Amino acid sequence: MLIKVIVVGLIAVMIYNLFRALIIMNKNDPGQVPMSKYIGRRVITSVVIILLLLLGILTGLITPNPRPY
Predict the structure, then answer these.
(1) pTM of the model
(2) 3-state secondary structure 32-50
């Protein structure tokens, strides 16, 4: 259950960073933080989520669906 809460929290952080980059892109102010900072955080969060899911599957904390249909 803890891994599911962590994954949902990381997805929320990823969506937050996506919208922060959107706001900066629309303002187009040269004095602000670059948009790539938030996009980079989003990519790193995605990598952490994938690694966490793989680790959970390998340790047996998460059981994948054996039949996809």
Answers:
(1) 0.80
(2) CCCHHHHHHHHHHHHHHHH
In a domain, 46, yes or no: yes
Q: Are 62 and 56 in contact (CB under 8 A)?
A: yes
pLDDT bucket at 58, cuts 50 / 70 / 90: very high
Report helix, strand or coil for 10.
helix
Q: Per the domain annotation, does 64 fall within a domain?
A: no
Q: Looking at the domain assignment, is residue 53 inside a domain?
A: yes
Rounded Cα gap, residues 41 and 19, in angstroms: 12
CA 5, CA 1: separation in Å to the nearest integer? 7
Q: How many structural domains are present in the chain?
A: 1
